[in-house]
Amino acid sequence: MTVRGTSPRTLALTAAALAAVANVIGASLSRDAVPYLSTVDVLTLPTIGLVFAAAAAYLAIVAPHRTAVLAVLGVALAAAAAPLALGLAQRSGLWVALDALPVLVVPTVALLAIGTARGRRGRAGRFVVAVASALAGVTIVVTVATYDPGGWGWCRCQPNPFALTDESVYTGLASWLWGAQMAVAVVAAGGATVELIRRPGRFGLPEAAITAGLAGVTGGWLASQAQLTSAGLLLVLAVHLRAALRHRPSRAHVADLLLEAREQHDPARLEELVARAIGDPAAAVWWWDPVADEYHRAGQADGDRAPDIGASPRRVLRVDTEGRPIALVEAVSHDLPVDMSVLDSVAEALRLSTENRRLTEELRHSLEQVRESRARIVTATDEARKRIERDLHDGAQQLLISTGVKLNLASAQSQTTGDPRLAETLAEASSELGRALTELRRLAAGITPTALVHGSLPDAIDELAIRCPLPVTVTTQGVANPGHERSATAYFVVTECLTNVIKHAGAGSATVALHLGEPLVVTVVDDGRGGADPAAGSGLRGLADRVEASGGHLDVTSDDRGTRVSATIPKQARP
Amino acid sequence: MSDHRAAVVVADDAPLIREGICQLLSGAGCEVLAAVSDTEELAQYMAQQPGTAEVLVLDIRMPPTHTDEGIRALESLRAQGNEVGVLLLSMYASPTLAVRALAAGGATGYLLKDRVKDGTTLADAVRTVAAGGSVVDPEVVSLLMASRQRAESIDRLSAREIEVLRLMAEGRSNLGISRSLGISAKTVDSHVEHILDKLGIQPSADEHRRVLAVLELLRAQG
User: How close is the nearest chain A Cα to the Cα of B40, in Å?
Assistant: First the structure.
């Protein structure tokens, strides 16, 4: 981007001051030169000139768009030209040149009009205005070179030192010059109006007002009605000022942009904020897509193309970080603001947003990996438990039972042989085997929630309650089926909590509340002495791990009135 | 118990246990018609030899899922209107499974697999089921009795009546109960009448009412 110092603004302010002085001098001189004219006629144009000069100064400060400031300055200076010419006619030969300048008013105001309305500028409008301006330039040059009323004795005024020809040439040209001036006005105003109408977007009130203003300026010019021209000029200026103020870059908008860029990355929303910050409602933000190796825009249409990186820095702000491209900000309605602090902040906001999005994605990815790995650990543990239980069932239990059958048969045989000691020994062996089987059953049941294999979660929890030596009340709400994994987690929560109640709580009773819904909630409450702390014991910590691995959370409150453990297990989005 | 040789089909995927059960039942005077290793083979047998089996001895956990195939086989038999006696063998003393088994209706038993090693318990249970009775494993019954959560209707029973109900639940006949408690059969009859009365079970075929009483006991836990 270009580095812009304060010099353009200083230049503009100086020019505005000069224009103002010129208008004041013009008013004063013409008042002296032609005292018979009415005050209104004398002061109309200088007043307009002063207003435009003030507006130019103001715009140069708050919304420095080069073309607009130049156009407003141009009108201010052109307005001073006629009164100055009138006032200087008897003092300086320059008056003829000054008198020729006002022909530039219509092209200048047409340029201002084109720069005011919404949307992307077409080339046609500018081209037409440029043609009109060139034609105006030609009329000025020809007039200055051929017109010398003082020299020819047409009036009591100073001769034109630039006049090259005699009276007859001018007489021959006069009607052509007049026609050329009319053509300048019609071409410039017409070109600007067509441009305004052709632009995409709504033809709104501002566009209507500008068109009316242009028509007034042109009509007043053609009919030599200074008041009408002045009214038109003021109307166009008013609409331009309104648009410029509305769209001027604002620190408040830049602050909004920075705040939102920190928190989110919604390309459409950021583009809107960038547009506000740089004061260009049509501004586009093109984000660099490292995968596609090109710039993209939110809601990009097929025909849309990112601007060239080498495009004019007045139009395109390129945002990079450490040599990597981030985004391009494309000014559309007018140039980018010259205020470096605005552009720097916009660039910083875009960097911030991209960086935040990258960090957020990395973090989310890491968290997802951690969550998946926790879930895998839980699943693997469950699988291992199931395998051990199955092995016990298919292996040890089968062998023990078949041994029991053989003992039984042996016992029957011993009865026929009538050896009482053998029968006794066999009975003892059978009884020990029974204890071994009971022990094995207890072991296997502790390894995996077998009750869940056969029944629903409420059934399994009822069985836990039945087996608990304390009175346990179970309440169940809802009928949803939480699925096997969540059921297993809830079951482990209740098992662990009831075990803690029996071992540590010294409780008189406990309640288990099961809410079968989304999420699944299971709450175990006892009336014991409290003191449960997930940070201290591995039991509750392990439980919390397991619940969190399922994407849920475990809440523990424990005081001298008892302990309450509640597990909330949401429906899983596990792959 | 009758002296009739009960015709039995055994289904268990564990070969050692399957053979053990067959040996025991043969030894205890039952006629083992077939021994199969899963419910599919069982269904084939039932289709090829309809009406021959009086009692099916089913392991609850069998292939393919190793969860509740035995009970599902029972439920599907009852759904087809087949009232053959079914004795389920379970690795665990689960009230849930016991309720599911008895709720299927008909002559049904639920026994821990451990009982296989005590030949007489298994054979007695097979005979009870063959005779149209129902059996619940003593451990399940103790579990239920030990539980403090008892519904009001069960609470209204006297200690002696609960004892009688518990033996009923285990599938004992009135005569068996009288022997076990050392009281007269007549006293047992009157206890049973009181129990059925207190539980609000309407008079009907005796065995059916006994099952309902046991179910009441089991459901009181739910």
Answer: 19
CA dist A65 and B180 (Å) reads 110
- Tokens representing A443 are 């072991």
User: How confident is the model at residue A124, as a pLDDT?
Assistant: 76
A81-108 tens-digit pLDDT: 888 888 888 888 888 888 888 888 888 8
DSSP states of chain B as a string? Answer: ---S--EEEEE-S-HHHHHHHHHHHHHTT-EEEEEESSHHHHHHHHHHSTT--SEEEEESS-TTTSSSHHHHHHHHHHHTT---EEEEEESS--HHHHHHHHHT-SSEEEEEGGGGGSHHHHHHHHHHHHTT--EE-HHHHHHHHH-S---HHHHTS-HHHHHHHHHHHTT--HHHHHHHHTS-HHHHHHHHHHHHHHTTPPP--HHHHHHHHHHHHHHTT-
Tell me the residues of chain A between 326 and 385 that have a Cβ less than 8 Å away from chain B.
Answer: none
* A239-243 contact pairs (CB < 8 A, 24+): A239/A116, A239/A206, A239/A209, A239/A210, A239/A213, A240/A68, A240/A72, A240/A112, A240/A113, A240/A115, A240/A116, A240/A210, A241/A55, A241/A58, A241/A59, A242/A206, A243/A116, A243/A117, A243/A206
> Higher confidence at residue A6 or residue A260?
A260
SS3 A161: coil
For a pLDDT cut of 90, what percent of chain A falls above it? 13
Other Cβ atoms less than 10 A from the Cβ of A20: the count is 21
What is the distance between the alpha carbons of residues A250 and B205, in angstroms, rounded to a whole number? 94
Residue of B nearest to A403 (CA): B117
Name which of A388, A398, A432, A474 to mutate to probe chain B: the one with the most chain B Cβ atoms within 10 A of its Cβ: A398
Strand partners, A375: none
- What's at A129, amino acid-wise? V
CA distances from A456 to A282, A477, A484, B25 (A): 62, 14, 9, 34
> What ipTM does this complex have?
0.73
Q: Which residues of B touch A450 (CB under 8 A)?
A: 91-92, 94
Residue A198 touches chain B, beta carbons under 8 Å: no
| φ/ψ of residue A317, rounded to 5 | -105, 120
Shortest distance between the Cα of A457 and any Cα of chain B, in A, equals: 11
What is the DSSP secondary-structure string of A108-160? HHHHHHHHHSSSPPPHHHHHHHHHHHHHHHHHHHHHHHH--TTTTTSSSS---
Residue A176: count of CB within 10 angstroms of its CB = 11
| Pairwise CA distance, residues B176 & A173, whole Å | 143
Segment A425-433 mean pLDDT: 89
Measure the CA–CA gap between A116 and A193, rounded to whole angstroms. 12
